[in-house]
Amino acid sequence: MKKKDPKPEIFSEETCQSCGEKIRRSFEEGDYVFRAGSPCKKCSSDTIISSIYGEYPPEKQEKN
């Protein structure tokens, strides 16, 4: 029997256009790079989605 490969968790990263603050959040349907994001929590300026990427969960150690 084949072991299933884990699926990566997808994230969107928003960057503030004013102060450079980066906000990482879970990917939402409709996200794309350079799309307007939510207001910056630090300075309330506009953010844009600067990157979208996936991360695999850490592998669990198998007990012998």
Number of domains: 1
Strand proportion, as a percent range, falls in: 25-35%
Q: Helical element count?
A: 0
Proportion in helices: under 10%
End-to-end CA span? 19 Å
Strand order of the largest sheet: 2-1-3
Instruction: Describe the global form.
Output: elongated
Q: Rg to the nearest angstrom?
A: 16 Å
Sheet bearing the most strands, described?
3 strands, antiparallel
List keywords for this structure.
64 residues; elongated
Structure overview:
The protein is mostly beta strands. The radius of gyration is 16 Å and the shape is elongated. It has one domain (9-55). The mean pLDDT is 89. Strand 1 and strand 2 (22-26) form a beta hairpin. 0% of the residues lie in helices and 34% in strands. The chain has a three-stranded antiparallel beta sheet with strand order 2-1-3, with no helix packed on it. The protein is built from no helices and three strands.
